[in-house]
Protein backbone atom coordinates (compact mmCIF):
# COMPACT_ATOMS: atom_id res chain seq x y z
CA UNK A 1 0.00 0.00 0.00
CA UNK A 2 2.83 2.44 -0.62
CA UNK A 3 0.71 4.47 -3.07
CA UNK A 4 -1.97 4.92 -0.38
CA UNK A 5 0.50 6.44 2.06
CA UNK A 6 1.71 8.73 -0.75
CA UNK A 7 -1.90 9.89 -1.29
CA UNK A 8 -2.13 10.67 2.43
CA UNK A 9 1.17 12.56 2.28
CA UNK A 10 0.00 14.54 -0.75
CA UNK A 11 -3.23 15.53 1.01
CA UNK A 12 -1.40 16.54 4.20
CA UNK A 13 1.24 18.56 2.35
CA UNK A 14 -1.44 20.35 0.30
CA UNK A 15 -2.78 21.75 3.57
CA UNK A 16 0.59 22.54 5.17
CA UNK A 17 4.12 21.16 4.65
CA UNK A 18 5.55 18.80 7.24
CA UNK A 19 9.19 18.16 8.01
CA UNK A 20 10.41 14.69 7.08
CA UNK A 21 10.65 13.57 10.77
CA UNK A 22 7.10 14.84 11.41
CA UNK A 23 5.82 12.99 8.36
CA UNK A 24 7.65 9.76 9.27
CA UNK A 25 6.21 9.72 12.79
CA UNK A 26 2.71 10.50 11.52
CA UNK A 27 2.89 8.00 8.64
CA UNK A 28 3.99 5.23 11.03
CA UNK A 29 0.59 5.35 12.75
CA UNK A 30 -1.43 4.30 9.69
CA UNK A 31 -2.25 0.66 8.91
CA UNK A 32 -4.19 -0.84 5.97
CA UNK A 33 -7.77 -1.88 6.63
CA UNK A 34 -10.52 -3.12 4.32
CA UNK A 35 -14.25 -3.66 4.70
CA UNK A 36 -17.00 -5.36 2.72
CA UNK A 37 -20.02 -3.59 1.26
CA UNK A 38 -22.65 -2.50 3.85
CA UNK A 39 -20.32 -3.10 6.80
CA UNK A 40 -20.90 -0.89 9.83
CA UNK A 41 -17.52 0.34 11.06
CA UNK A 42 -18.88 2.47 13.91
CA UNK A 43 -22.24 2.01 15.64
CA UNK A 44 -24.24 4.54 17.59
CA UNK A 45 -23.28 4.15 21.24
CA UNK A 46 -19.68 3.16 20.47
CA UNK A 47 -16.67 5.41 20.88
CA UNK A 48 -14.86 5.94 17.57
CA UNK A 49 -11.43 4.37 17.89
CA UNK A 50 -9.91 5.21 14.50
CA UNK A 51 -9.42 8.02 12.06
CA UNK A 52 -9.81 6.60 8.56
CA UNK A 53 -8.18 7.74 5.34
CA UNK A 54 -10.27 6.48 2.43
CA UNK A 55 -8.33 4.82 -0.40
CA UNK A 56 -11.27 3.36 -2.30
CA UNK A 57 -14.98 2.86 -1.95
CA UNK A 58 -17.82 5.01 -0.66
CA UNK A 59 -19.02 5.30 2.92
CA UNK A 60 -21.63 7.30 4.78
CA UNK A 61 -22.28 8.62 8.26
CA UNK A 62 -25.94 8.37 9.16
CA UNK A 63 -28.35 8.81 12.04
CA UNK A 64 -31.07 6.27 12.86
CA UNK A 65 -33.77 6.95 15.43
CA UNK A 66 -36.22 4.90 17.48
CA UNK A 67 -38.97 5.48 14.92
CA UNK A 68 -36.93 3.85 12.12
CA UNK A 69 -36.15 7.18 10.48
CA UNK A 70 -32.77 7.47 8.87
CA UNK A 71 -30.79 10.57 7.90
CA UNK A 72 -27.64 10.36 5.78
CA UNK A 73 -25.35 13.14 7.01
CA UNK A 74 -22.18 12.85 4.96
CA UNK A 75 -20.46 10.68 2.35
CA UNK A 76 -16.75 9.87 2.32
CA UNK A 77 -14.66 8.67 -0.60
CA UNK A 78 -11.05 8.84 -1.77
CA UNK A 79 -9.00 10.80 -0.98
CA UNK A 80 -10.57 12.00 2.26
CA UNK A 81 -10.70 11.31 5.95
CA UNK A 82 -13.60 9.34 7.38
CA UNK A 83 -15.19 8.18 10.59
CA UNK A 84 -17.49 9.79 13.13
CA UNK A 85 -15.25 12.76 13.83
CA UNK A 86 -17.06 14.31 16.79
CA UNK A 87 -17.10 10.98 18.67
CA UNK A 88 -13.45 10.46 17.71
CA UNK A 89 -12.15 13.82 18.90
CA UNK A 90 -14.36 14.09 21.98
CA UNK A 91 -13.90 10.38 22.80
CA UNK A 92 -17.55 10.01 23.68
CA UNK A 93 -20.15 7.54 22.43
CA UNK A 94 -21.18 8.19 18.85
CA UNK A 95 -24.71 9.25 18.01
CA UNK A 96 -24.14 8.10 14.43
CA UNK A 97 -23.23 5.08 12.34
CA UNK A 98 -20.31 4.91 9.88
CA UNK A 99 -21.04 2.38 7.14
CA UNK A 100 -19.46 1.28 3.87
CA UNK A 101 -21.77 1.50 0.85
CA UNK A 102 -19.28 -0.33 -1.39
CA UNK A 103 -16.27 -2.56 -0.69
CA UNK A 104 -13.76 -0.14 0.80
CA UNK A 105 -10.04 0.15 1.50
CA UNK A 106 -8.55 2.50 4.07
CA UNK A 107 -5.56 3.44 6.04
CA UNK A 108 -6.54 3.90 9.66
CA UNK A 109 -4.80 5.26 12.73
CA UNK A 110 -5.85 4.57 16.32
CA UNK A 111 -6.85 7.77 18.08
CA UNK A 112 -4.95 6.86 21.28
CA UNK A 113 -1.72 6.90 19.22
CA UNK A 114 -2.71 9.79 16.96
CA UNK A 115 -3.61 12.42 19.58
CA UNK A 116 -0.23 12.46 21.38
CA UNK A 117 1.62 12.85 18.06
CA UNK A 118 -0.69 15.67 16.94
CA UNK A 119 -0.32 17.38 20.34
CA UNK A 120 3.47 17.30 20.17
CA UNK A 121 3.79 18.53 16.56
CA UNK A 122 2.57 22.09 15.84
CA UNK A 123 2.46 21.50 12.07
CA UNK A 124 0.20 18.47 12.51
CA UNK A 125 -2.00 20.36 14.97
CA UNK A 126 -2.32 23.15 12.38
CA UNK A 127 -3.34 20.67 9.67
CA UNK A 128 -5.97 19.12 11.95
CA UNK A 129 -7.35 22.58 12.83
CA UNK A 130 -7.52 23.47 9.13
CA UNK A 131 -9.33 20.21 8.37
CA UNK A 132 -11.82 20.79 11.18
CA UNK A 133 -12.40 24.38 10.05
CA UNK A 134 -13.15 23.14 6.53
CA UNK A 135 -15.49 20.48 7.89
CA UNK A 136 -17.33 23.06 10.03
CA UNK A 137 -17.63 25.37 7.03
CA UNK A 138 -19.15 22.52 5.03
CA UNK A 139 -21.62 21.70 7.82
CA UNK A 140 -22.75 25.33 8.03
CA UNK A 141 -23.22 25.49 4.25
CA UNK A 142 -25.24 22.30 4.40
CA UNK A 143 -27.47 23.70 7.17
CA UNK A 144 -28.27 26.70 4.97
CA UNK A 145 -29.10 24.39 2.06
CA UNK A 146 -31.36 22.19 4.20
CA UNK A 147 -33.21 25.11 5.75
CA UNK A 148 -33.45 27.52 2.82
CA UNK A 149 -33.18 25.70 -0.51
CA UNK A 150 -35.81 23.96 -2.58
CA UNK A 151 -35.27 20.32 -3.55
CA UNK A 152 -34.00 21.36 -6.96
CA UNK A 153 -31.60 23.93 -5.47
CA UNK A 154 -30.24 21.32 -3.01
CA UNK A 155 -29.75 18.90 -5.91
CA UNK A 156 -27.96 21.51 -8.03
CA UNK A 157 -25.69 22.46 -5.11
CA UNK A 158 -24.80 18.81 -4.55
CA UNK A 159 -23.87 18.40 -8.21
CA UNK A 160 -21.88 21.64 -8.17
CA UNK A 161 -19.96 20.54 -5.07
CA UNK A 162 -19.49 16.90 -6.15
CA UNK A 163 -20.28 16.46 -9.86
CA UNK A 164 -19.20 12.78 -9.80
CA UNK A 165 -21.46 11.81 -6.88
CA UNK A 166 -24.25 10.38 -9.06
CA UNK A 167 -21.85 7.68 -10.28
CA UNK A 168 -20.48 6.91 -6.81
CA UNK A 169 -23.47 6.76 -4.48
CA UNK A 170 -26.72 4.82 -4.89
CA UNK A 171 -29.51 7.28 -5.60
CA UNK A 172 -31.63 6.24 -2.59
CA UNK A 173 -28.85 7.48 -0.28
CA UNK A 174 -28.48 10.72 -2.23
CA UNK A 175 -32.23 11.30 -1.92
CA UNK A 176 -32.01 10.66 1.82
CA UNK A 177 -29.01 13.00 2.13
CA UNK A 178 -30.98 15.77 0.41
CA UNK A 179 -34.16 15.05 2.38
CA UNK A 180 -36.09 14.25 -0.80
CA UNK A 181 -38.40 11.31 -1.50
CA UNK A 182 -36.79 8.78 -3.86
CA UNK A 183 -39.47 9.29 -6.52
CA UNK A 184 -38.92 13.06 -6.46
CA UNK A 185 -35.18 12.49 -6.70
CA UNK A 186 -35.72 10.44 -9.88
CA UNK A 187 -37.79 13.29 -11.32
CA UNK A 188 -35.01 15.75 -10.49
CA UNK A 189 -32.42 13.63 -12.30
CA UNK A 190 -34.63 13.69 -15.40
CA UNK A 191 -35.46 17.39 -15.05
CA UNK A 192 -32.11 18.99 -14.20
CA UNK A 193 -29.51 19.25 -16.92
CA UNK A 194 -26.32 17.60 -15.73
From TrEMBL:
UniProt-listed CDD domains: CAP_ED (cd00038)
Domain of life: Bacteria
Domain Cyclic nucleotide-binding residue range list: 14-133
InterPro entries attached to this UniProt entry: cNMP-bd_dom, cNMP-bd_dom_sf, RmlC-like_jellyroll
UniProt xrefs under Pfam families: cNMP_binding (PF00027)
Official protein name in the record: Cyclic nucleotide-binding protein
Organism: Adhaeribacter arboris
Amino acid sequence: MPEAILELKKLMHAIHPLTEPEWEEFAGLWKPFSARRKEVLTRAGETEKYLYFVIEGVQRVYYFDEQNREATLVFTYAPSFGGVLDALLLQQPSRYFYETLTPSAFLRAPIHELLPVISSKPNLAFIIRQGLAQALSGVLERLVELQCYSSEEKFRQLLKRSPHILQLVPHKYLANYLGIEATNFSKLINKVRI
